[in-house]
Amino acid sequence: MTLGLSLTILALGGCGPKVEAPKACQSDLVLSDPASPTDGMVRLTGGVFAMGAAGEHPEEGPPRQVRVGDFWIDQTEVTNAAFARFVEATGHVTQAERPLSASDYPGLSDADRQPASLVFVGAGAAGGNPAAWWRIIPGADWRHPEGPGSSIKGKETWPVVHIGWEDAMAYARWLGRDLPTEAEWEYAARGGLSGARYAWGDDPAPKDQPLANTWQGVFPVADTGDDGHKATAAPVGCFPANGHGLYDITGNVWEWTSDWYRPGLLPASVLEEGGPSRAMSRDPDEPGQPKHVIKGGSFLCADNFCFRYRPAARAPGPHDSGASHVGFRTVLRIPAAPDPS
After folding, report:
1. Which helix (H) or strand (E) holds 42?
2. Distance (Å, rounded) from C-alpha 131 to C-alpha 114?
3. Which of 14, 59, 78, 231: CA 20 to 30 A from 305?
4. What is the pLDDT of residue 119?
5. What was the pLDDT predicted at 272?
């Protein structure tokens, strides 16, 4: 786990059993099952699309014409109920529940290596230092999202959080799936809208009809909760789906991709093959710490601060740690048909 700067950067940034969901939210959720490979997924036909953006954040461009193949993708972010089923079946222990390795982190004390995760605590905080809005809390993990004493009871349909990249990949592999590449994720998020600023079009969401769970008000002092959720994630499926029928593809929680991060988009040929190699990964703020791309923004994204609840937006995520606003969804690729020639 990267305990200092990299966690601050992360901050900135029908066969299975049905799950009860709150009224007005998506109510027909199906838990993923290894015996039913496409449960809870939407099938997308691939194609060429304009990936990236110009004029928002420099790491989002330059735009590229990128091709993706056909694939299935989870209709919602992976929920607490779905992840609990995986843990029950496999005994998986998440990165937040394990102490850091003394050999990997020889400079840390035993206390600093204890299981912990990053939690947002700045809803009422003042001051301009982003590090003050977050706290590494021992005992915070997917079962205890705010730390010891907190629980996910009654939040079975909330997106699972405090999930590191390894944990997300382990869940995907259990189902015979993968994490989406950055290109696949963005193609899905755009919902068929070529070059649109948001997942729903070019115009901001109207105040009387929120289209994603984001931060309304001045971040991090006060979230007015005009979208029905104050400084917190929402159950999956509470907002309209995009053009591909995907819920919460922007806002709610950031989502892991399989790609390694470096600022700016590489040539289309590299993006189409899954992005840069680990050796090419570079975060200018921590050039020696390889990171993965996270996409989609979260309930903490405000127009006055990060403004990253857009399909083109991207950020670096430390591959060995998670946070209270980072989750994921999975994909299942469809092999290309043989060339008849």
Report:
1. strand 41-44
2. 20
3. 78
4. 93
5. 95
